[in-house]
Amino acid sequence: MPYGYNGKILRVDLTTGETSVEKPSVKFYRKYLGGNGFVSYYLLKELEKGIDPLSEKNILVFAASVVTGAPVPGFGRQSIGALSPLTGFYGTSEGGGHWGPELKFAGYDALIVKGKAKRPVYLWIKDGEAEIRDASGIWGKETGDTFDALAEELGDTKIRTLLIGPAGERLVKFAGVASDLRHYHGRTGMGAVMGSKNLKGVVVRGSQKTEVADPEKIKELNKFFLENFPKNADNRTLSKYGTTAYYYGANSAGGLPTDNFRKGHIEIEKTIEELHEALKIKTEGCYACPVRCKQVFKAEQPYNINPRFGGPEFETMGALGSNCGVNNLHATAKGHELCNRMGLDTISTGLTIAFAMECYEKGLITKEDTGGIELTFGNQDAMLEMIKKIAYREGYGDVLAEGSWAVAKKIGRGSEKFSISAKGMELALCDPRVKNGVALIYTISPLGGDHLQAEHDGAFDPMLTGYSHAADDPDFFMRGAYQIGVLEPVSSLSLGPEKVHLVTNLQHYWSLFDALDLCIFVFGPVRTFKPAQLVEIVNAVTGWETTMYELMKVGERVTNMMRIFNIVHAGLTRKDDHIPERLYDGLENGPMEGSKIDREEHQRALTYYYEMMGWDRENGVPHDGTLYGLELGEFIPMLKNRE
Ligand code: SF4
């Protein structure tokens, strides 16, 4: 057996009830690595053109990678992918926790699900055996109750689960997938795809540990991590407060999306210390990760918050907090709990509610439409009520369950500007008007409004690099950047060619992360394990003699495959590579008041990006030479014959 991975991929056909196993070659594993590498490969090779994403013809891929499950921090993630019902473009979502490692322990590296079950089912994968089981008794239940019922039925409380809630069952276009209840695959509507297949969950359990090629080297690198991680102030903050700290940081910097991205600053009613004092009961971590950045919140009054659903991350706090004008973080934490219980992406949920709030403010929707709910900015109870209505598609929630862009197209009358989305998916809570590279990230993301295509500008800003994070190591941030070919820092407020170069290189690296299913807080170039160490770790796990060059090429390859997919399956052209109109307007308050994206500079940056990627200037179609150079020649006919 190879080191690090199983060499086995499980196929399940829910229509026929058949399962089978395939054993790809070592070259296949080296070429795609796993995670989103596998997702992009199988979708590109096997998805029929012109299908409805919620029909049985869609394909769901669940994938871990060649290194998932090795005892290294940041290796506890997995990818889910399919054609997105929210956007009609490529859909994928990475999540943390323990599911990916457990799938590996159960004997598989990935799972490809086709067809549609006649009645609700779940998949039970245990030590190499796979079974499609009846889920009629749990259909309709929230994620927590579903977990309890499955644990009882299977007689095992240590099962690892990917589950949908009522939102996925009702095909809410931005329904997500809960990973062990506290972690989440939020983006692009993968929960709705599971719901459309009558697939309530995928439950895994395995007893076979991942064997690595060089255990001593892994021990040595883990020792390095444990010694060096706490030396960095940003890392210490991450362990103490998780990403909730970024909410306060973004607010001080004037870049915290507020009142539907009109403002960048809000008066927060609690300091970070007060928030954690009031709500936090503990921190937790993903598989094998000592960082333990996951916050667990609990409360009884005025909102009961059940700790089994964890606590909100930065994006959730922004989406269900400031961006809805809500400054009561207790209410925001309740919103997080509701979304996790019911199976909703907190980002799209929050931004769709904020969109509706602005429509309400402008009189485009009324109290009659909302069933009496006063949908005004700052009305925290209206926000919480609307979450439930969306999840169950009740009243106006049924309309909003389609996502803000679809609703805006229906309402018209200028409401399109209130949908803060790209390619039909709502933006994450990172405002490009204070870090311009993020404008390019949203523009070129294959998924739409996804912020995780590359590290954000601040880390490489000449004003910020080397500041208090590492007083004894002023080159701390840039050292990681050098290793992926970026030698100079660039201002956060630049969208010039240097910034495009930075984003392009970082995107190759981030795309590699998603193929390996790695955590950015452990492996980002400004974090503890630098790129050179990632290469050492991959070699120590797999026994390969890989290099940074080979790994970066995988990242670039996967980005190109997603591009081909979007061109072939969704007819993507330059006009789809866009940002919301609002970002060309100045921020209305805060320290960055007036800051905006320059339209012409933005378009120039997009052209530079296409050129740096080896794509044509007009529509970003990869050149034949680019694809041959990435060993993707087999997909060229698909691009040529797309009409
Ligand atoms: S740093 Fe946090 S999110 Fe990343 S693997 Fe560790 S615990 Fe999970």
Keywords:
Aldehyde Ferredoxin Oxidoreductase Protein, subunit A, domain 3, binds iron/sulfur cluster, 3 domains, 6-stranded mixed β-sheet, Aldehyde Ferredoxin Oxidoreductase,  A, domain 1, 16 strands, Aldehyde Ferredoxin Oxidoreductase Protein, subunit A, domain 2, alpha+beta, 643 residues, globular
Give an overview of the whole structure.
- There is one protein chain.
- With 643 residues, the chain is of the alpha+beta class.
- The protein has 26 helices and 16 strands.
- The strands form 4 sheets. It has a 6-stranded mixed beta sheet with strand order 2-1-6-3-4-5, with helices on both faces. A 6-stranded mixed beta sheet has the order 8-7-12-9-10-11. A two-stranded antiparallel ribbon has the order 13-14.
- The longest helix has 23 residues, at 548-570.
- It is globular.
- 58% of the residues are buried.
- Bound molecules: iron/sulfur cluster.
Radius of gyration: 23 Å
CATH-scheme architecture of the largest domain: 4-Layer Sandwich
Number of strands: 16
CATH topological fold name of the largest domain: Aldehyde Ferredoxin Oxidoreductase,  A, domain 1
Mean model confidence by pLDDT: 95
Please give the alpha-carbon distance between the first and last residues.
44 Å
- Percentage of β-strand residues: 5-15%
Helix residue percentage = 25-40%
Fourth-level CATH superfamily of the largest domain? Aldehyde ferredoxin oxidoreductase, N-terminal domain
Give me the side-by-side strand order of the main sheet: 2-1-6-3-4-5
Backbone structural class: alpha+beta
- Per CATH, the class of the largest domain reads Alpha Beta
Biggest sheet overview? 6 strands, mixed
Number of helices: 26
Oligomer kind:
single chain
Give the bound compounds. Answer: iron/sulfur cluster
Question: What does the overall shape look like?
Answer: globular
The low-pLDDT segments are none
Counted up, domains total 3
